[in-house]
């Protein structure tokens, strides 16, 4: 599979084309529902149960494509952690939970000022530093890049750069199965890493390619 490219296809089909033990790090932020519902309502967390076979198969592929010393980072929150954790643990060793302190956030029942990141690996990693880190997040609503709204769950480049720097070397290969607006690709290119990404919505592929041209 060609590297430094974002493929417009379902990630579960795409990842099957990646060679075994070829990926140094997987950094991804799965959508909560992947377009499926259990009761016709948009945005119901009960819909996660419908996606259990999908994520079980995807995490099995994570274990296949990751190198022996490779790292896996999966963004989640207090509602999705309990869903992802046992599925990931079936296939690869979950080592820790990182806490990203965003310093700001929306919410009326206390503000949502942090996100969780499941950290897993095949080998036994030697990671320095705290599992809690502070970097400013976007302030509510759809996030912006160069003044334009691009993706509702976009992460700041600096957050992805931290994870890439912590877990890879220059020339390593990073995979993002839910590339969105291309932040993982942008961070990888800035840090002289290679990347492979999958994104099912064409409009975000175009945004990603535009962002990459500016790096």
TrEMBL record:
PROSITE patterns from the UniProt entry: N6_MTASE
Q: Which Gene3D superfamilies match?
A: Vaccinia Virus protein VP39
Report the EC number(s), separated by commas if there are several. Answer: 2.1.1.-
Q: Which one Pfam family would you cite for this protein? A: N6_N4_Mtase
GO biological-process terms attached to the record:
methylation
Is the Transmembrane keyword given for this protein? no
MF terms from GO for this chain are: DNA binding; N-methyltransferase activity
> By its UniProt entry, which InterPro entries does this protein fall under?
DNA_methylase_N4/N6 (IPR002941), DNA_methylase_N6_adenine_CS (IPR002052), RM_Methyltransferase (IPR001091), SAM-dependent_MTases_sf (IPR029063)
The record places domain DNA methylase N-4/N-6 at: 23-123, 130-209
Q: Which domain of life is it from?
A: Bacteria
What would be one Gene Ontology cellular-component term for the protein? cytoplasm
Q: Which UniProt keywords apply?
A: Methyltransferase, Transferase
- Describe the family membership recorded for this protein in Swiss-Prot or TrEMBL: Belongs to the N(4)/N(6)-methyltransferase family.
Specify the protein name: Methyltransferase
Q: Which gene encodes it?
A: mboIIM_2
């Amino acid at each position: 599979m060609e590297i430094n490219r974002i493929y417009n296809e379902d990630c579960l089909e795409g990842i099957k084309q990646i060679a075994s033990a070829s990926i140094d790090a997987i950094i991804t932020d799965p959508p909560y529902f992947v377009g499926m519902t259990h009761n016709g309502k948009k945005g119901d967390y009960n819909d996660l149960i419908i996606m259990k076979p999908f994520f079980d198969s995807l995490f099995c592929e994570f274990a296949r494509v990751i190198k022996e010393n490779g790292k896996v980072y999966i963004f989640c929150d207090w509602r999705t952690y309990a869903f992802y954790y046992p599925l990931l643990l079936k296939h690869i060793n979950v080592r820790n939970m990182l806490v990203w302190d965003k310093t700001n956030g929306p919410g009326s029942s206390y503000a949502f000022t942090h996100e969780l990141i499941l950290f897993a690996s095949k080998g036994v990693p030697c990671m320095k530093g705290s599992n809690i880190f502070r970097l400013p997040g976007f302030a509510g609503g759809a996030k912006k890049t160069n003044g334009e709204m691009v993706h509702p769950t976009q992460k700041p480049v600096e957050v992805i750069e931290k994870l890439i720097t912590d877990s890879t070397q220059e020339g390593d290969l990073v995979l993002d199965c839910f590339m969105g607006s291309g932040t993982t690709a942008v961070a990888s290119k800035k840090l002289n890493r290679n990347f492979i990404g999958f994104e099912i919505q064409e409009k975000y592929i175009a945004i990603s390619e535009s962002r990459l041209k500016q790096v």
